[in-house]
Amino acid sequence: MAVRALWQCDRDGKMFTSKKDADAHDQMLELAEAISNAVNENVPGLNETQLDDIGRLIARNKDLFAKAFKGKSAELSKLDFAEPVDEIEDKLTQDNIAKFDKAKIG
Amino acid sequence: MAVRALWQCDRDGKMFTSKKDADAHDQMLELAEAISNAVNENVPGLNETQLDDIGRLIARNKDLFAKAFKGKSAELSKLDFAEPVDEIEDKLTQDNIAKFDKAKIG
To answer: Which of A72, B19, B97, B105 has its CA 20 to 30 A from that of A85?
Structure first.
């Protein structure tokens, strides 16, 4: 049986087959968290889901926001909040791993 | 009686004694509006005030957000949403002008 390395992001447990992707995901979540906290401290009345969504929306699309900051605000109409496809694919990997872990413990 | 030029931002009617400040304010509001729209389209359940506040919070602090995008997310803890002092001062000018307009019409 072959074995392979997997990289897990401890912020949300997600698994990646490459360390680079795992690091990028972890940094995105760290940025998202900082944005959620900043919005939470300055804009009253938002619930946790809304704060998380706002943080991730901006963190995931930071390149578009950076362009908008430089005067191209129309760039923000291209914003996409759908989960990137590879994340869904990674979820499948995650499910397989969960089953794998269960089988090992069983 | 001396006369002086005032620059009015048509997005919110605010007055400025310098065109440069008026332009900067107008661009900030344009960016804030684009951000509010982007958040509104992607994060459900926010009311108009919250959307406006989020847009202005980010637009006013875009330099801090740009630093956070480059990996310094701690910069966002320095975020300040208090209205800049000169805006309050400008509001006083605005009130004087409103009275001035009324006197002219009266």
So the answer is: A72
